[in-house]
């Protein structure tokens, strides 16, 4: 009997034994193509020797030194390399252990910035419906996934949620893409004015929505307008690129494609690529300087901030990414994946939308293509598809539709950046077989 507390108490998961490129291999030797990179984590696949060696080298030198006393070479070097490639005036990096910690840190930094900037009344956070920012209580409060929030609602601070930019489901038939983008961005300004423009501390969003909607990119111009509105009212823009950042969309940072920069940027997953748990919050020079000139102390912190071994892994991952221009490779492989997805599934009676960027794609299922009516969530389609795909040797990331009927079941594909075209074809064969079994 196992003493591990698993994600699902009654699931009998196989034991993952080894990794080989894009494949995870279980204890019986069965190979699974990692079509979701875990949860968009394993961007370099599972056996990158450069990263493994960097971890071993760092362990031989030093495993841990507390950041209350020391900095470390890998943390300094990783911060330098991130900032050299980061958008806008992002200037400082705060290393944590994962995505939720990065988001928690961002929320608290935004609040502290305003206090030290002489505006302590700024305390409201605005985020978006159908978003996911993590499972710790602050991050969960920011997220707009009704199902994940439901039972913890009494523990969550108040956060306003406006509409996401979800063109497939929510654009009116007679509305241009630009008008739609403008309309949903306008919800931010309306909410700021409703709350009182000098009481809002930050707006948080995922540039390409991951875990709740399934790789939904914004329409052109949406983030330009969002940036303008934030600037107009002194509201900080926090972009959560925990899932869509670090090359996943074919740009090192997803917001690079929008031509804007945030005040605070959260990254994780692809930063350590699964080799070590690491996340980071990047903040602008203005925010850092304000705190440095004020209390000189961010009222936050975890034991494993800037962990040297995790930072060494992150540094090796980023060097691998930049030395091999993997974002460009993601763009070309992504075009191949898109073409194949559309060729195979574009006319499928129960596929309503195929959308994404780079190697980050969502396939949304509908009961009726014309009306875009989702399947009844009680059918559990996404879960069945996950099981069938897994049995066929494909790891993909399923997401159930929301119970409010706003979006249907979908499956997220986020394969490793090193996947070959033949491997992607093999993954789509598995997905097609699974779909034929389930739908
Ligand atoms: N933010 C986004 C956009 C995510 O997709 C996730 C995880 O899926 C998180 C935050 C939370 O990250 P973690 O699971 O590492 O805490």
UniProtKB/TrEMBL annotation:
The keyword Cell membrane does not apply. Its cofactor is pyridoxal 5'-phosphate. The keyword Cytoplasm does not apply. It comes from the Bacteria. InterPro entries: Aminotrans_3, Aminotrans_3_PPA_site, PyrdxlP-dep_Trfase, PyrdxlP-dep_Trfase_major, PyrdxlP-dep_Trfase_small. Pfam families: Aminotran_3. GO terms for cellular component: cytosol. Keywords: Aminotransferase, Pyridoxal phosphate, Transferase. PANTHER family: AMINOTRANSFERASE (PTHR43094), AMINOTRANSFERASE CLASS-III (PTHR43094:SF1). This is Adenosylmethionine-8-amino-7-oxononanoate aminotransferase. The lineage of its organism: Bacteria, Pseudomonadati, Pseudomonadota, Alphaproteobacteria, Rhodobacterales.
């Amino acid at each position: 009997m196992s003493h591990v507390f698993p994600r699902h108490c009654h699931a009998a998961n196989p034991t993952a034994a080894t990794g080989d490129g894009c494949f995870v291999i279980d204890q019986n030797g069965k190979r699974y193509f990692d079509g979701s990179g875990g949860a968009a984590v394993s961007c370099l696949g599972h056996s990158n020797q450069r990263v493994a060696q960097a971890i071993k080298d760092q362990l031989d030198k030093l495993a841990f030194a507390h950041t209350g006393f020391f900095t470390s070479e890998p943390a300094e070097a990783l911060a330098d390399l991130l900032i050299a490639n980061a958008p806008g005036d992002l200037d400082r990096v705060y290393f944590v252990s994962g995505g939720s910690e990065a988001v928690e840190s961002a929320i608290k930094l935004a609040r502290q910035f305003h206090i030290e900037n002489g505006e302590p009344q700024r305390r409201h956070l605005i985020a978006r419906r159908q978003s996911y920012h993590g499972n710790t209580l602050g991050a969960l409060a920011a997220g707009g996934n009704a199902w994940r929030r439901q039972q913890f609602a009494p523990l969550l601070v108040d956060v306003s949620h406006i509409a996401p930019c979800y063109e497939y489901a929510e654009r009116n038939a007679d509305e241009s893409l630009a008008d739609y983008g403008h309309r949903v961005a306008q919800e931010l300004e309306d909410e700021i004015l409703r709350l009182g423009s000098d009481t809002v501390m930050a707006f948080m969003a995922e540039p390409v929505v991951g875990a709740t909607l399934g790789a939904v990119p914004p329409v052109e111009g949406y983030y330009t307008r969002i940036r303008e509105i934030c600037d107009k009212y002194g509201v900080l823009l926090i972009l959560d690129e925990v899932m869509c950042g670090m090359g996943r969309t074919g740009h090192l940072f997803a917001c690079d494609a929008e031509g804007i920069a945030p005040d605070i940027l959260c990254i994780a997953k692809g930063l350590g690529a699964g080799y070590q748990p690491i996340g980071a919050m990047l903040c602008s020079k203005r925010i850092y300087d304000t705190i440095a000139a004020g209390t000189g102390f961010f009222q936050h912190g975890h034991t494993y901030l800037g962990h040297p071994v995790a930072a060494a892994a992150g540094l090796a991952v980023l060097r691998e990414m930049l030395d091999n221009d993997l974002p460009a490779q993601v763009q070309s492989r992504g075009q191949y994946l898109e073409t194949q997805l559309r060729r195979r599934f574009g006319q499928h009676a129960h596929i309503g939308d195929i959308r994404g960027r780079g190697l980050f794609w969502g396939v949304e299922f509908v009961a009726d293509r014309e009306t875009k009516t989702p399947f009844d969530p009680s059918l559990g389609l996404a879960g069945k598809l996950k099981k069938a795909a897994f049995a066929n040797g494909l790891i993909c990331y399923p997401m159930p539709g929301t119970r409010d009927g706003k979006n249907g079941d979908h499956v997220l594909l986020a394969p490793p950046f090193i996947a070959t075209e033949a491997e992607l074809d093999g993954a789509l064969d598995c997905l097609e077989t699974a779909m034929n079994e389930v739908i």
